[in-house]
User: Fold these one by one.
Assistant:
Number 1:
Amino acid sequence: MTALQRVWPGVALTALSLLLFAYVGYGEAMRVYLQIRIERIEQLGATLQGTVGQFAKSGLPLDQFGGFDRRSQQLRVVDPAILATSLVDVDGKPIFCEAEPAHRDTLCRAEASTDSTHARWMATPLRGGPGVDLAVSLPVSDKFANVGRVLLHLDRDKIERVVDAAFRPVFAASAGLFVLFCIAQLILRSWQGEAVRQRWLTPLFLTVIALNLAVMVVIMFDLYRKGTEGQAEALARSMAARLSAVTDLGIPLSALSGIHEAFNEYRQINPNIAAISLNDRNRVLYSVQDQANGAEVFGMPLQRLVFDLPVEKSPEHDLVLSVELPLSVVLAALGAGARNFLALFFGCAVLALVFLRAVREGQGAISGDAASRLALLRPAYFLGIFADALSLSILPEISKETVLAEGLSTEWVSLPFTLFFVGLTAALLPASYVTGRVEIRRLFMAGAGAVGIGLFLASLVPDFWALCVGRMLSGIGQGTLLVAVQAYAFEVVGEGQRTRAAAVQVLGYNGGLIVGTGLGGLLAVFNADRDVLLVGGLVAVGACVYIRFVLPALVHHETAQAAPVSLLGSIGRLARAPDFVAVLGLVGITSKFALAGIAMFAMPLVLHQAGYGDDEVGQALMVFAVVTYLVTGVAPRLVGRVGSIDGVLTIGMIMLAVGIGLLGLLVVPASGASAPPAFVPTWLLTTASELQVAVGSSALPVATGLAIMVAIAALGVGQGLIAAPVVARVAESRAAGAVGRERTLAIYRLAERAGHILGPTLVGPVLLAAHGNAIPLAIFAILFAGLAVIYGLWSVIGRTQTA
């Protein structure tokens, strides 16, 4: 029983990670394969659409079109997922309809909508519902206007069963890897001892996750390959059927005309087809190909996928229709999924490292060992941040959609973000006041509980004001958690380890941000946005359980002060301290402005408006958090190497300016966005246009995305260089010695929240005035660069005067 108790945390983390991979992998495969299959059916339907369109352009009424049932049956033979094909007029009334007998009465009826149904369908791994809920609608026009539509009704269950069958080996592999991990843990514990098991815990976990990822990528590549081949094969079968109908009558191909034109028409329907040829044994009769159709990557030729379809086989002829597809088409379909899996892998790795480190190092927490207590402290704060971060990539869109749905002015979009930071700010002083009067775990519990209540309210009540109240409650919870983790960390470390204590809070924050934004963006792809908020609330409940039963109890003791000073007296004394005011005004408030107004609010909003999806926005936030996390760990060593905290803070401010400026210049507005407002200088517009053209014309297809990632990484570098050093800078200031470290830090934390509040409050109207254009962000970058220069000069002058 003792062995099981030792092993279960690692086993639970492995099970959770494998389940996440299975869920996201299955959902991603379903989403992509459905899109591939629907495109295939659209392409098949386009052949019928083209024939009916030519007839309509002749001026004859559609009810005189002949051969509709025969052509529809050919389509259903090529793709059995097609249940029915109908030709309807502009009012949705069927003119012709050919369907399976079991579905004729259901599908051969007047259509209420003239829109394409499949565009509104969303793939969800656990989604239920009827099997017949997909349709493809293709307009038919005469010389003047639309006169009808070709409708293809699809069997969703039949398409999904292909993915189900493909993923059975993935589920089996996940289960097998889980069992092997459990056995390996028990064997190491029994034969080699607890120390060896602890040492191998993290490598074994990462190996299991990496093997599971490899299996999933192989399975998905094969699934996408078959789906992409199926697109071309469907058109090829349609062409082969047309040719066979002629050759079966004994008509020689030489008597036909327009074969080249038909091949070109099919390649226009599916531009991914690299070549189509009709061969008679070793002789090419007709061939159409495009040498430039994506056949190379970085100058290296890629293998093409080739498949052949027989047209006629006789002693005189062996006609074969050959179709080629570039492998890059399959790789492109796999690319988005691979990016999501890498984000998931990294998120699971960070999640595991936080908790496995607590398992490995937390054994001495009861005896009061500082390192052990810090190891157990990180997951407590991590879970509180993780719960809220799950929704960060979608909150701007949720707020915007809710405002529009309720008919409010778009100026209200930033209000939930502002109220979040108002709540966070309002909680700091009361929470700081009670730290020395209650056991700190209670403060942690109150903070995590408030976060959960806020998320549940925003999830379950689809109202804008409920969203505002929910975000304010979550802000109160986050402020309480911030004070609690800071008090706990400073209490357990020695006087010379203040930067280390501050780093625990910063690293816990960014770890939760990394996992939360990455997983939240992925969950938002497969689930309703408010369901993601609900998941965040459940994570907050888990945080409460962890704090109650795992985190050791600790009573905070206020450090001695030279003389008791009232709160107002402390504020007055700090307001007259030049070093405190300079750090607060030039670094603290501005860095929080960048975090709340740019990274958390503006960046997701402008990326969504530029056409990026929830998963991509979540991964952008994840990049920001990852870079911040890594740089935060390096920052204390950089302070030692530079020899000055002020120097590192100045570099951080410059990097923030670089990141904000690049983000404003690089994000291309979505089509239809209005021109930027008049307050944007012409030279800035010119610079942005030239930079966007230069990056967009790069030979690298993903150059724009990579450039935006560089901008986001620069933001992360700036935040990482500021987050922990600025706290240490305030803690060691002369004002902190006079007023008291805890009270100084509490007042500083309270005052810097002005940046949190001002960020969304000021950036929101600017983006509203810019009509979806991100270029005005570059103006904020110029202001940040100016503040960096001022702070750098101030710190140099201050050191000179001190010397």
Number 2:
Amino acid sequence: MTDQVKVEIDPLIKERYGVLFGNKNVNGKVVNVEQVIGELTLELRGEIERAMWERRKLLDSRREVRDKYSFPPMEEKFTHPVTGEVRTFREIVQGLIDNLLDRNTPLRWRLNENLPVPPEVDPFKVPGLEITGPWNPVDMAIKQINADVSATMGPDDEDAAPPDFIPLGSQEKEVGLYLSRVNEHMILSGEISEVEITKKGEKRKYRINKPRERWPTSIHRVPGMHLLDFHVKVNGKPAPSIIVDYVIHVLNDFEPLRKRGSLLYFYQPKVQFPEEASIIAKILWKLERILGAEKPGTLIKMKALYEEGNAGRFLPVIMWYWRFWLVGLNVGRWDYTASLIEMWNQRVLSDPQNGPLMGMTARHMMAYQRYNAILNIMAGGAPIGGMNAVMLYAENDPYGRARHNPVTLRSMWLDKMRERLVGLIFVPEGEVGSVTLEDILSGKVKGKLYDGYRQSWVASPDERYVSAGNLPLRAPLEKLQAMLDAPEEWETVDGRRVAPKVSSGLTESERKLFISLGLLNERGKITPFVLRDMTPDGFLKLLGGDLWDALYNIPPGEITVENIQHAFYMAANYGFQILNGNLAAAIDDYVLFPGRVVRFMNDLATYRIFVTWLWTVGQHDPAVTKDGWLKGPKLTDDGVIPADPVVQLKAGERFTKEHFQKLWELHNQWTRAFFEEYDRLTAIRIVASIISKRTGINVDKLVQAMIRGEAEKLVGHQTEIEAIPRIREIVSKAYGAYPRYVREISLEEASHKISEIVGNHELVRRELESMQPRFDRSKAPLIMDVLRRQMLCPNLIQHSGRVLFIIADKDESTREKILEAVYYLDREGRPLFRDMGRPSRVLLARAVEEGKMPKYALEAHDYVYDIPES
């Protein structure tokens, strides 16, 4: 380190993951990881802090939404961060138009002008799904590589990353985020191809079963600019996580990737302003120069998530800043939805779970997807579809919820088919009316057809699920109409229709949906979108009407008590998992598909949606638009869900703070019922295992029979079955019982007590270990405390998962001070540090100066609210 740059690595990180640091041989040079992290941090920290502060100011502004989120004036000037070239917004848009129409003008620009996109990362050359997810545990990386996907976005160091903390009280010894980086390096270097991991008490082997040349393209997904890495300090302050992540991957994995014939590929998330895009461009170009590049975009390429509503108004500028590196933009639907809720935080938008009003088929979300497709096509890039993350249940699910899997598979196919059709963009020769795909393919109309969305996202490597999504993305263009027109085929369970098969053509309701979205005409024929007014002024009418209205003008819609409760259910469940160190969480979702329960994969983006929307509900006391009920827990055929009507609200009645309190109490009841039901299932499995050992009947079938009460399969085993309630009580003491959910006895003690009832101590111990929960139940009251304070706090927090990151490894007293500072409330909900009723950072800072609050609480506050030190 130089005198100006002092980089300190946490001793635990340096000891366990030191292979990531130090000197690296890259492209014939010796480069020091810490030195580059330090230099980039000192160079860009101020810019990053200013950019985050601009986000905060925009969020807090009370100006009208259309005013503060307007498109830039056509004559506003922007300076390219690498070339220094200055262009107006009009000139940048004109350059896009010139590129689309193949005009060789001074203003024309296109993506990747210094080096074309390599075929391995080009969505048009390798169509299909990109899979994302953490690379720790390492078996998850191996399963992603083995999947039939076009790319792995792993490790995911963004929304579904392993934690960069070890939760308080956890048995975990590793910092998951750093271990995933080691796993990535060892896999890319060929040092890991097979691992043995113990899961549920069994040793399992995982092996990469593809030759290296058939691996999916490796794309590294970096964290957002709003995060800090508290394990790495530069001149005494935490370094930006994004810089640490970029540098570690570039300097560790450039050589292994080069030996494979690959460049460095990144996925960049959560950029909102051109200033932020400029920072990313500076990072990329500095790293390329360190590697020896003479021109930008020749050693690094990136894809990026267009997942912030604010970014849409600057999108041509952002793409122009990134033109040397950008392969294409992904429609990151979840963060985008959350950003719209933030944008409109002065009112309550419709239920975010309401597909027709807020989902991908909503008017504004269709405009978003089409806008992304058009701009990518104009720039010579590739639009990329969004995430579908409804997971399949295992066939041995104790409640038999695998019966819902056909719904999940069809939803995947339908989602990717819709994206494929949205990406069909036609530039005609001369004036035309509405055209069909058949008209274009037959030559009836002249022009150029663009087939945009050929790649999209998935979160599960399940073969059936991946196949369902790949089908529409990989199908030849001329086959799409036949796929839609194919005969209906249905999956049935017990003689009842569940969902259309993946191979089925559109049902009547699906066809009506696609017609309403403008993807098909009334005859059911595919109708590509026709680009017409190709002028800079016409850009603001790009989608056929006012572009701002199309993207951002969200009409009032339904607000139901059931969906308020569901949002709380999802936020509390996911927040509980964050506190336990899991950022990629499959949660049983009882609302997504009416009448069914499915496994919905949540990450930080879904938490942002639910918490932000709940905050707007808490602040504005909206009137519900339908009669409805707050519901207590009930054991159903699909497990314990909120299903027992308790508190009724009539249409027009306001959802008040008192209703929030009742919702909070009902969720506490659900938590208790859910944990106790899990313990009952464990008791049932113990008994089923003992019966299975005696009879040879499959354990899973016995468990399902006991749950369904199929008496004929249980004859002769009444003694063991009657013991299940007593066994459940013992299990709860071992796993954590109401109200504190702390473990009262060890697994060994529980095994002795249970074996005194049913015998076979060894088998009982094995099942107790196999079934023991992954997560510390005592974190359940903590997330409830956090959510209650957040709903009551007058301040809107963007990316509020950061609060949980900060407190997850802290003791109770430290945690309490942080929560008081962040939410301006004590544990009982009493206001703190208020001036005229409003939260006051001045009063909080004064409390620190007077020794009434610790400095770390103020530092946590400023991190969460993006307040720069200056």
